[in-house]
Amino acid sequence: MSVGHTAVTTPVPDEPVIVCETPQDECGVRDVLDRLGDKWSVYVVVELASGIRRFKELQRAIPGNISQRMLTLTVRRLERDGVVTRTVYPTVPPQVEYELTEMGHSLTHLVKALADWSIAHRPFIAASRAAWDAAHSESAAGD
């Protein structure tokens, strides 16, 4: 590999990884982060990565006691974004199943990378938090 080629593909530390044309553009990131940055969407994606789930199966599998209403809102938003498909079977009561779309499955690789990063950096983050808390404990007590 030539030096010139390496310079082109190796990120320069002083240059940002993502550059938006205008501040209002936000590089299309805001919509995605709003959806995936909420409390429940990533849990739904992770659970559906294992396969099709009925509503109650999905609700029981998600940690943190998600309410029926919140799960309904979350899967509707993910369905609207094309991440999840919803299939209703004409039974009494209706049986509803959720499944990741092809795009939803492609998202699982990013979620796994984020989880791997989190696990790898957990000790450093814990140490950093402890150091910060110790350094700021007096100012927090005065608030």
From TrEMBL:
Record's superkingdom?
Bacteria
**Transferase recorded as keyword:** no
Q: Which Gene3D superfamilies match?
A: Winged helix-like DNA-binding domain superfamily/Winged helix DNA-binding domain
* Domain HTH hxlR-type residue range list: 27-126
Q: What Pfam families would the database entry show?
A: HxlR
Q: Which SUPFAM superfamilies match?
A: Winged helix' DNA-binding domain
Q: Which PROSITE patterns match?
A: HTH_HXLR
Q: Does the keyword Transcription apply?
A: yes
Q: Which GO terms describe its molecular function?
A: DNA binding
User: Which InterPro entries did the record assign?
Assistant: HTH_HxlR (IPR002577), WH-like_DNA-bd_sf (IPR036388), WH_DNA-bd_sf (IPR036390)
| Keyword terms of this UniProt record | DNA-binding, Transcription, Transcription regulation
Q: Which PANTHER family match?
A: TRANSCRIPTIONAL REGULATOR, MARR FAMILY, TRANSCRIPTIONAL REGULATORY PROTEIN
Official protein name in the record: HTH hxlR-type domain-containing protein
Q: Which organism is it from?
A: Streptomyces cinnamoneus (Streptoverticillium cinnamoneum)
